[in-house]
Amino acid sequence: MHVFVTGASGWIGSATVDDLVAAGHHVVGLARSDASARAVSAAGATPLRGDLDDLEALRRGASEADAVVHLANKHDWSNSAATNAAERAAVEAIGETLVGTDRPFVVASGIAGLAPDRPAVESDASPFTGPDAPRGGSEARAFDFVADGVRTIAARFAPTVHGVGDHGFIALITAAARTHGFAAYVGDGTNSWSAVHRSDAARLVRLGVEQAPAGTRLHATAETAVPTREIAEAIGASLGLPVRSIDPADAVAHFGFVGQFFGMEMSGDSTATRSLLGWDPVGPTLVEDIAAGAYAGAAAR
Predict the structure, then answer these.
(1) Do the beta carbons of residue 215 and residue 154 sit within 8 Å?
(2) What is the mean pLDDT of each run of 10 residues along the chain (301 residues)?
(3) How many CA atoms lie within 13 A of 236 on its CB side?
(4) CB distance 135 to 92 below 8 Å
(5) CB 43, CB 18: distance < 8 Å
(6) Apex 155 CA angle, 152 and 159, nearest 5
(7) What is the rounded CA–CA span in Å between residue 57 and residue 90?
(8) Rounded to whole angstroms, how far apart are CA atoms 82 and 64?
(9) Distance between CA atoms of 72 and 121, rounded to whole angstroms?
């Protein structure tokens, strides 16, 4: 297949491009800079210059593809309104281009906020539906196009897609431990996060493109629920630092913006995903990655 990938040089996107290319697919990757274009080319894919605000580039990439994988997101926590608006506009531009084609359209999403008191499951519909919702309600908006002949698939990622080189949430939590001289968890640390290794997440995206029917919600969660206290203890052990609880009211001051999430339940089950696609995660666990030094280079904030 000819697959158009947004976010092609990003953390999950670059691994997805590698997996798609290795499986024999021709990949075109959206590249917003010369450096991104070089990275896409080095992976054996073809760069298409543009970004999420370049709707014409998105339409062109989608119109020339047999499938679209939308992984890009601005992730500008200082201007969430602009980030959400850009995400919604991008999904609408791609979806409108694919109307009537029955082509796969994989849209990145997450499990956060789906089921606050238990692991989310694939049958849980996203409660984020409007343009002002997180990610601009992009998952729900993308599913609107199913009725118009688009094979929309939601890829819901764990809050940590981990591995060597990750600069996401776990890197920030590790950096805070270096800054403060101890690894911390929020409250009693019994709330849990799901986790998935980057390579397993990338393979799931490819399997979704190849096999998943319209309207499918896929959960990229290799580990359903890792207690956040266990995450903090692994970070502490890797850095040789003590481990302490902090009050929920102090979480943002301690961790930065990620503090608003580290005390949340963000777990998700992937039983239905595994059954549907035959997806069997084989990468290291989150604690194994931390213990092996994957986050040893996380700089103090």
Answers:
(1) no
(2) 97 98 98 96 98 96 98 83 92 98 97 92 95 90 98 98 96 97 98 98 98 98 98 98 98 95 96 98 98 84 55
(3) 17
(4) no
(5) yes
(6) 155
(7) 10
(8) 28
(9) 24
pLDDT of 300 reads 63
Q: Is 133 helix (H, G, I), strand (E, B) or coil?
A: coil
User: Six-digit token pair at 289?
Assistant: 């990655």
Q: What is the pLDDT of residue 140?
A: 96
At residue 84, what are phi and psi to the nearest 5 degrees? Answer: -65, -40
The amino acid at 86: A
At 299 the pLDDT is 66
pLDDT score of 195: 98
Give me the helices (H) in the chain, please: 11-22, 34-42, 55-63, 80-98, 138-144, 169-180, 198-211, 228-239, 251-255, 259-262, 271-277, 286-291
